[in-house]
Amino acid sequence: MAKRQGRNRFAYFAPSMHAGLLEKLDLADDLRGAVERHELQVYYQPFVDLSDGAIVGAEALVRWPHPRHGFIPPDRFIPLAEESGLILPLGYTVLEAACRQAAAWPGLKISVNLSPRQVQDPAVVLYVQQTLARSGLAPHLLTLEITESLLQEDAEVAQHRLGELKALGVQLAVDDFGTGYSSLSRLHDFPIDVLKIPKPFVDGVAAGAEQSALARAILDLAAALGLGVVAEGIEHAEQAAELHRLGCEVGQGFHFSKAVPAAELDALLPMRLGAAGR
Ligand code: C2E
Ligand code: MG
Ligand code: MG
Ligand code: MG
């Protein structure tokens, strides 16, 4: 339709759409500057042993303190970074910071999110290897979280690349498993170690057999395939208890702690999180 209107097609953009587009371009520009000036920060959300509340690891989550708009949520700027290619320098900044930090937390596992664009980049393998070497972090302590959509689109590249990453000795986790329409039969083709149960599935746990069915299905699947499981978005003690009862060993969520700066996680390390009375 826009095409047939020829030169007049711009008349069909409502003023509000135009403003939205300009705002997006502005933000993309600001993001480029923030990446170049190293203004992005890395926060850490603990992973907890559901049997006793001990911290066993943490997920690195990027934070952008914008000088005028305050903290902008990753869900808003990660897609922008993906579109512009900025996700590569951004992602490597996070990986570098997280590995250095984790090397100072002996024995703790660290998870870093990799966007599909990063996995498609052949340089990612050497980059991860060099970052591990520079930081001194043992490879088995690093988990790379990939999106389920990666396994679906571009499956051949993903399979090859994930194999190369796996050969470095790192662990691979599928983030938000079950929300991305990958076929279950494909799971076997990838060297995956861990499935992460997404928050919407965790929300239903402890609310009854039907509501908890999806979380239980992932736990059963993981057990059958010999994979680890991490439940995300646990907000209530009842969910933590029920997940533990269902065989889930590790959890993450506001019930235990939100993502915090490294120094704050330091202070949490000796504690048992989510225990009654806290
Ligand atoms: P994700 O990797 O699935 O991370 C979990 C998100 O859920 C985080 O949001 C975390 O703060 C939030 N969360 C954790 N526990 C709870 C809870 O109990 N309740 C609620 N309501 N939320 C909880 P965050 O930090 O805003 O990140 C959103 C997404 O942005 C991440 O989802 C991830 O996909 C992406 N992201 C964040 N950092 C990076 C990064 O460094 N690189 C890439 N590629 N993506 C990133
Ligand atoms: Mg994640
Ligand atoms: Mg997730
Ligand atoms: Mg999520």
Automatic annotation (TrEMBL):
Full protein name: PAS domain S-box-containing protein/diguanylate cyclase (GGDEF)-like protein
Shown segment, full-protein numbering: 593 to 870 of 870
Domain EAL: 24-273
